[in-house]
Design goal:
CATH architecture of the largest domain: 3-Layer(aba) Sandwich
Radius of gyration: 29 Å
Bound molecules: adenosine-5'-diphosphate, magnesium ion
Largest sheet: 6 strands, mixed
CATH topology of the largest domain: Rossmann fold
Number of strands: 12
CATH superfamily of the largest domain: P-loop containing nucleotide triphosphate hydrolases
Strand content: 5-15%
Structural class: alpha/beta
Number of helices: 27
Distance between the termini: 61 Å
CATH class of the largest domain: Alpha Beta
Strand order of the largest sheet: 8-9-10-5-11-12
Shape: elongated
Length: about 650
């Protein structure tokens, strides 16, 4: 409660102060800056969705500012319509264009995505320039502000309108980003594969996020056009894009406050460059801050020397350069570049990221309390298990070029059992899992669950069909907390439609999700670390957490790919205990495991693979004595009983 009061109080105060300024200071210049601040605030909140939450370098936001501006301008000048339709058209156009751009572009990752958005920005700048009959080309487009209810807004009134839009966007986005939507955005940034495997749908969330961010860009563009009354294509070019990126990273990613701080920087930058003394003072301050932060990092051993030194040098160049260059405006591109570099290297969390921890300590803002865990029986109802065939692999094949990783494999997993899948390294175990779970498309054969064919080649659809899995190489959502990792995957909890989520009316289901996720964390013994980021957990805890996350899917079949790999002995024991608990709830498990003692202790049935083929099947004891198994593991036929088992190249150790 205290936390909520503090956070909401800070927001209310900020908006009240911003709103009250025109009443106190009747300065048209300041008013202009404040109006721009509100507009850029909306623009950066939109950009932060892709840059911060999706973690993609998005270079198209400036294009959406321009397109939104022109859309609003044309609706007013050509169609003679009012402000409402103009802003609506600007937002809708960019929402749609953003969605369309996202469809192909978001199949791309990293640099390719950045280049795709850059191409879009270049294309839209050219279009605005060349479609002269529509946009006026380089001549520009003049827009007279249309009246609202027969009344032309005064400057302060227009500012309040922009501020009201910013407040609205702020509120809606706060609700959205704190919901399952925001978690999904972050999850897919950290691991798109796991996001799909948890039935969350990477692609639809990426497209939604990008469309949303672009729509906000369009709204900002509409307000920008109304504010300036004049548009020119060159206002939406490459240089402005750099400024926007600077705003987001300097302000602080994944933060509404960060967007506001970033927007102030963008608004103040031109003034900074036009006043030489101010520029020198500012870069001197920046250099001193970089030095202090760098030294602090070095003493605390949180930064490496390069990370500490590079921003100091970059800001130092600005200070020294400031003395030699009389007109800093001519150098603005280089200056922005140096500033961007310093921030990216020296202050990766941005100003707000830096300040939040500090403020939280200063004001002793308590963490929001967590609810009591739900009853495990309601989160993970016990399955009736009758031993009937649950999963059937029917002549399954998967080839990689000439490598037959899975070669005509047939096997049946019975409901309620723990079915071991063992074999030397490279025998195709992980490939089987990847084919069943939809990461790979089979080269031939079928997979049946409950007698029904599973979808092929779609992690998302297989997850929805009731299969959950963990990964041999951990695929956690590192930046999310343990609790959030489980919450992302929870099935059957999030039912509120988007409008209710936006209005903040989905809180009850959020609480329920927290309680359910806590119950699962309790099951694996991580309840006390619910708030720790997944990347900060111990390796063992991370392995346990992946199981809890998979259980949130309430699966019929759980596939564990080497859940004990790399674990220290006590952790192996705890892992066995966890798997037993899961099994007691009637969940069928496929267990890939290297430690034969673990297999013997847990498994009801074992299938042994070698070279993608089944070489033995049976109970753990039967399998252990099977001649082919001994041969596969030891590389020689079992002549005498004295053959000493050994591990080479990581092959599974067999007990003597
Ligand atoms: P295991 O999990 O039993 O150690 P894998 O299923 O990982 O074995 O690998 C089986 C074989 O398939 C190996 O020869 C491996 O090199 C090959 N393989 C697995 N995944 C791929 C891939 N994505 N591309 C090419 N070859 C692969
Ligand atoms: Mg493997």
């Amino acid at each position: 409660m205290r936390r909520l009061l503090f956070l909401r109080g800070a927001e209310l105060l900020a908006f009240a102060v911003l709103g009250a300024i025109p009443l106190l200071v009747l300065n048209e210049y300041a008013l202009g800056l404040l109006t721009l601040l509100s507009i850029y605030g909306i623009l950066l909140i939109g950009l932060d969705v892709t840059v911060g939450y999706l973690g993609q370098v998005n270079l198209a936001q400036i294009a959406f500012l321009g397109l939104g501006g022109y859309a609003a301008g044309l609706v007013i000048t050509r169609l003679g319509m009012g402000m409402g339709p103009a802003l609506l058209a600007a937002t809708a156009l960019c929402l749609v264009l953003g969605g369309l751009l996202a469809l192909p572009a978001l199949r791309l990752e990293g640099p390719q995505f950045a280049l795709a958005t850059l191409s879009f920005a270049a294309l839209s700048a050219t279009a605005l320039n060349e479609l002269e009959s529509l946009t006026g080309g380089a001549q520009g487009l003049s827009i007279a502000q249309p009246p609202i209810f027969g009344h032309i807004l005064t400057k302060p009134q227009f500012y309040w309108l922009c501020l009201a839009f910013l407040a609205l966007v702020w509120m809606l986005m706060r609700n959205l980003l704190a919901s399952q939507w925001g978690r999904a955005f972050e999850a897919l940034r950290d691991s798109p594969i796991a996001t799909d495997a948890m039935g969350v749908g990477t692609y639809r969330h990426k497209v939604a996020a990008f469309a949303l961010g672009s729509g906000l860009g369009g709204l900002a563009g509409g307000l920008y056009a109304l504010n300036l009354g004049y548009l020119q294509p060159q206002s939406f070019g490459y240089e402005q894009m750099i400024t926007l990126l600077l705003g987001v990273v300097l302000g602080g990613r994944k933060s509404l406050w960060g967007a506001l701080v970033g927007a102030s920087v963008i608004v103040l930058l031109p003034n900074l460059l036009s006043k030489h003394d101010l520029f020198l003072a500012f870069s001197g301050l920046g250099c001193a801050m970089a030095l202090a932060a760098g030294l602090r990092g070095l003493v605390k051993k949180t930064t490496r020397p390069f990370q500490a030194l590079a921003p100091v040098v970059a800001m130092g160049i600005l200070v020294v350069g400031g003395f030699f260059v009389p007109n800093t405006e001519d150098w603005r591109k280089a200056i922005f570049a140096l500033m961007l570099f310093s921030v990216v290297v020296g202050l990766p969390e941005g100003l707000m990221g830096f300040l939040t921890g500090f403020l939280a300590k200063l004001f002793r803002v308590p963490e929001a309390p967590l609810p009591e865990p739900s009853d495990l029986n309601s989160v993970l109802p016990t399955h009736p298990a009758d031993g009937s065939p649950l999963l059937v692999l029917d002549h399954l094949k998967r080839y990689f070029g000439g490598v037959k990783a899975v070669d005509d494999l047939s096997m049946t997993v019975c409901s309620g059992s723990i079915h071991g899948l063992i074999g030397p390294n490279g025998s195709g175990k992980s490939t089987v899992v990847n084919v069943i779970s939809g990461l790979y498309t089979p080269s031939g054969g079928r997979v049946l669950l409950h007698g029904q064919e599973l979808p092929q080649g779609s992690l998302f659809r297989v997850a929805r069909a009731g299969v959950a899995r963990t990964f041999q190489n951990l695929q956690l959502f590192g930046e999310l907390t343990a609790l959030e990792n489980v919450m992302v995957a929870l099935k059957d909890v999030y039912r509120s439609p988007l409008p209710l989520v936006l209005l903040g009316l989905a809180r009850p289901e959020e609480r329920r999700a927290q309680a359910d996720a806590l119950a699962l964390l309790e099951l694996i013994g991580l309840k006390d670390q619910a708030r720790a980021k997944a990347k900060d957990l111990t390796y063992g805890a991370q392995r346990f957490l992946e199981i809890a996350r998979a259980l949130a899917r309430k699966p019929d079949l759980l596939i564990l790919d080497e859940p004990a790999a790399g674990l220290a002995h006590p952790d192996v024991l705890q892992q066995i205990e966890i798997i037993k608990r899961v099994h007691q709830r009637g969940i069928t498990i496929i267990l890939i495991e290297h430690h034969m003692d673990v297999v013997s202790e847990l498994c009801d049935a074992v299938t042994v693979l070698d070279g993608g083929k089944v070489i033995a099947e049976g109970t753990p004891d039967e399998v252990k004595r099977h001649p082919k198994v001994v041969e596969a593991y030891l590389g020689q036929p079992p002549e005498t009983d004295s053959a000493t088992p050994h591990t080479d190249g990581g092959a599974a150790p067999l007990p003597a």
